[in-house]
Task: inverse folding
C-alpha cells in the first residue's frame, strides 16, 4: 500500500521540478532585479536631497552597483556551474533583498542613538571617501549605508542571469529555448515599468509622513526642498527579492531533459552512477578548467565579434533611451509626464509581442543558428534603415537664451560657454548647467528662472509664475512660466508620425533580439556557456558609455542638437554591422557547438541503443544455439 503513496509524492515533486516552473521563477527574479535597479536610479535625486551630498558622491553611489557586480560576475559564471545553480540563484536573490534593506536603513538610524564605535567606523569611511573625491564637507555620513547596500545588491545579482540561462539551455528542448529566453526578456521590461510606478508613488509621499503632520508642510513635491519617501520603495524591493528567492531552494541540481520526464524512473540508476562520476570529476577539476575555458572563449572569433557588436549597439541604445524624454520634450513642446506615457504606450506592447513571436517562430520552424543569424541581421538592418526617417520628423529648436540665441534674440551656434551668463543675471549667482526651463512673455525661453533674472515667484507647482525677470525685456510685465514655450500644431502632427515609427521599429527590433541572442548562446560550447554569458555581460558593462553620458553639459548638447541625438547612435549602430557581417561570413564555414538539434541527438541515442541491443544479441546467440541443441536431443 505504501508504493502508490510514494509514487504520488514523487509525481508531485517531479511536477514542481519541471523546467517551466523554473522559467516562471527565473522570470520573477528578472522582474525583481530590474525593479530594484530602476527604482534605485529614480530615487537618486531624493537621496541627494536627503543626505545633502554632492553630485560626485551621487555618482559614486550609483556606480557602486557595477562595482559589486563586475567584481564577481565572471568568477560566479564559472564556479556557479560547478555547484547547485538554483540554490545559488536563490541565495543571490536573498542577498539582493539584504542590499535593498540596508539601503533603507539610514531612515531608521538618522537622529537615533547609535554605538560610538559604529559611528567612528562611519566617520572613518566618510574621511576616506572625502579624500578620494576631494569633498571638503559631507553633512550626513548615512549615505555610506546606501552605497554599501548598492554594492551588496550588485553582488547578489551576479548569479541570476548566467546561471539561470545556462540551466534553461541545459534542460530545455533545443527548439523551446528561444521562446523561454524571450519570456525572460519580457521580465526585464516589466520590472522597470513597475519600478517607475513605485518611484512616482514614493516620490509624492513626504519622507517623514509617518512622524510629522503633513498638513503643516509648506512645500510640495515640485519644490526643490521636497524629499520623497525613498526608503519605502527599498523596503518593498527587499521583500520582493526575498520572496522570489523561495522557489529556487526547492529545485534540484539537475533536471531530466524536457520531454523525457516520463523516463526518469527507468534510467534513474544509470543517471545516478553517471552523476556521481561527473561530480567527482568536477570536484577534482573545479579550477583547472577556468583558464582553458577563458582561452577558448577569447579564441572563439564568432563570440568575440559578437561582444564587439554588443558593445557598439549598447552604446547607441544608451544614448537613445537616456535622452529620449528630454529630446522629445524639447523638440515637440510636450510635458515630461506626457512624453514618458507616450514612450511606454508605443514601445512596451510591441516589445512584448516581438519577444514572444521571435521565440515562437524559432520554436515552430526549429530554426538553425545560421538561419537565426541571417534573420536577426536582416531585421536589425531593416529597423536601422527605417530609423533614418526620424531626421524628417523634427521641429525647429526652441529659441533658448544662452543656447540657441543670445539674450537679445540673435541666433548663434549651439551652447557657447561664455554667453550663458549675461549682464542681466550675473549678480544672481546662477548655475550654468542646470536645465529647468522657463518661457518668458517675450516668446524666448531660458535655461532656468535664475538665468532669466527673475526675482520672485507667485503660485505653486505647474501654475507657478516668475516675476520681475530682468533678462526679459518686453512691453509686458517681464514674467515667465515653467516649461518651454509652446509650439505650433505642425509639431503635434510630426510627434504622431514619430511615435508611429517608434511602434514599427520597436516591433522589428524586438523580433531580431531573440534570434540574435540565441547565436550568442549557441556559438560557445555547452560547458563554457555560463562563463560566456558572464564575460559578455562584463564587457558590455565595462565598455558602456553610461558614466560619460550623465554629464549635464553633454545632455544639453545632445538634447538640443538633433543631428547629435539621432546621428551618433546611427553611426555606432552602423559600425556594429561590420562585426555582424564577419559573423555571418564565419558561420558559413563552421558548425556551431550548440547547433545540433535535439531531434538529431535523440536519433543518435536511439541508434546507439539499437547497436547495444544488437551486441547483446550477438553475445548471447551461442547460448541460444546450445539450448536449441539440447531440446532437439531430448
Result:
Amino acid at each position: 500500500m505504501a508504493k502508490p503513496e510514494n509514487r504520488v509524492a514523487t509525481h508531485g515533486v517531479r511536477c514542481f521540478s519541471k523546467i517551466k516552473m523554473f522559467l516562471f521563477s527565473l522570470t520573477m527574479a528578472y522582474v525583481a532585479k530590474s525593479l530594484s535597479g530602476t527604482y534605485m536610479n529614480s530615487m537618486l535625486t531624493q537621496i541627494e536631497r536627503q543626505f545633502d551630498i554632492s553630485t560626485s558622491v551621487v555618482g559614486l553611489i550609483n556606480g557602486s552597483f557595477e562595482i559589486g557586480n563586475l567584481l564577481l560576475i565572471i568568477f560566479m559564471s564559472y564556479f556557479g556551474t560547478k555547484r547547485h545553480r538554483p540554490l545559488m540563484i536563490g541565495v543571490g536573490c536573498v542577498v539582493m533583498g539584504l542590499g535593498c534593506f540596508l539601503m533603507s536603513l539610514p531612515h531608521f538610524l538618522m537622529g537615533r542613538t547609535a554605538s560610538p564605535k559604529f559611528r567612528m567606523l562611519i566617520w572613518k569611511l566618510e574621511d576616506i571617501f572625502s579624500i578620494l573625491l576631494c569633498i571638503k564637507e559631507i553633512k550626513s555620513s548615512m549615505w555610506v549605508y546606501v552605497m554599501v547596500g548598492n554594492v551588496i545588491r550588485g553582488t547578489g545579482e551576479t548569479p541570476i542571469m548566467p546561471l539561470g540561462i545556462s540551466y534553461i539551455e541545459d534542460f530545455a528542448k533545443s527548439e523551446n529555448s528561444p521562446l523561454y529566453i524571450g519570456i525572460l526578456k519580457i521580465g526585464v521590461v516589466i520590472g522597470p515599468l513597475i519600478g517607475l510606478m513605485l518611484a512616482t508613488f514614493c516620490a509624492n509621499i513626504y519622507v517623514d509622513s509617518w512622524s510629522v503632520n503633513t498638513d503643516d508642510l509648506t512645500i510640495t513635491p515640485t519644490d526643490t526642498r521636497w524629499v520623497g519617501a525613498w526608503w519605502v520603495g527599498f523596503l518593498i524591493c527587499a521583500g520582493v527579492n526575498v520572496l522570489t528567492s523561495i522557489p529556487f531552494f526547492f529545485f534540484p541540481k539537475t533536471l531530466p531533459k524536457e520531454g523525457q520526464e516520463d523516463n526518469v524512473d527507468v534510467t534513474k540508476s544509470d543517471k545516478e552512477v553517471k552523476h556521481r562520476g561527473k561530480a567527482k570529476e568536477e570536484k577534482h577539476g573545479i579550477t583547472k578548467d577556468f583558464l582553458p575555458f577563458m582561452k577558448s572563449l577569447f579564441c572563439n572569433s564568432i563570440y568575440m565579434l559578437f561582444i564587439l557588436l554588443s558593445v557598439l549597439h549598447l552604446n547607441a541604445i544608451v544614448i537613445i533611451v537616456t535622452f529620449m524624454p528630454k529630446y522629445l520634450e524639447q523638440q515637440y513642446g510636450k510635458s515630461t509626464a506626457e512624453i514618458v506615457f507616450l514612450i511606454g504606450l508605443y514601445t512596451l506592447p510591441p516589445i512584448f509581442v516581438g519577444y514572444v513571436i521571435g521565440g515562437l517562430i524559432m520554436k515552430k520552424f526549429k530554426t538553425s543558428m545560421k538561419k537565426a543569424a541571417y534573420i536577426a541581421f536582416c531585421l536589425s538592418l531593416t529597423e536601422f534603415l527605417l530609423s533614418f526617417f526620424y531626421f524628417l520628423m523634427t521641429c525647429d529648436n526652441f529659441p533658448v537664451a544662452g543656447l540657441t540665441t543670445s539674450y537679445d534674440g540673435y541666433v548663434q551656434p549651439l551652447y557657447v560657454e561664455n554667453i550663458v551668463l549675461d549682464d542681466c543675471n550675473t549678480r544672481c549667482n546662477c548655475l550654468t548647467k542646470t536645465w529647468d526651463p522657463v518661457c518668458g512673455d517675450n516668446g524666448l525661453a531660458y535655461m532656468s528662472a535664475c538665468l532669466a533674472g527673475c526675482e520672485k515667484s507667485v503660485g505653486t507647482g505647474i501654475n507657478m509664475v516668475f516675476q520681475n525677470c530682468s533678462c526679459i525685456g518686453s512691453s509686458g510685465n517681464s514674467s515667465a512660466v515653467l516649461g518651454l514655450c509652446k509650439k505650433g500644431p505642425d509639431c503635434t502632427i510630426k510627434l504622431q508620425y514619430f511615435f508611429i515609427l517608434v511602434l514599427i521599429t520597436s516591433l522589428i527590433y524586438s523580433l531580431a533580439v531573440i534570434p540574435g541572442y540565441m547565436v550568442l548562446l549557441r556559438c560557445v560550447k555547452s560547458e563554457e556557456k555560463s562563463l560566456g554569458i558572464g564575460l559578455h555581460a562584463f564587457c558590455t558593462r565595462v565598455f558602456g558609455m553610461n558614466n560619460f553620458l550623465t554629464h549635464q553639459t553633454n545632455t544639453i548638447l545632445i538634447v538640443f542638437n538633433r543631428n547629435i541625438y539621432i546621428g551618433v547612435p546611427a553611426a555606432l549602430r552602423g559600425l556594429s554591422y561590420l562585426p555582424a557581417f564577419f559573423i555571418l561570413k564565419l558561420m558559413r564555414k563552421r558548425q556551431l557547438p550548440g547547433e545540433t538539434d535535439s531531434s538529431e541527438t535523440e536519433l543518435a541515442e536511439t541508434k546507439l541503443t539499437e547497436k547495444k541491443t544488437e551486441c547483446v544479441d550477438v553475445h548471447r546467440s551461442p547460448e541460444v544455439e546450445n539450448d536449441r541443441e539440447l531440446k532437439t536431443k531430448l
The chain has a mean pLDDT of 78. Residues 259-288 form one domain.
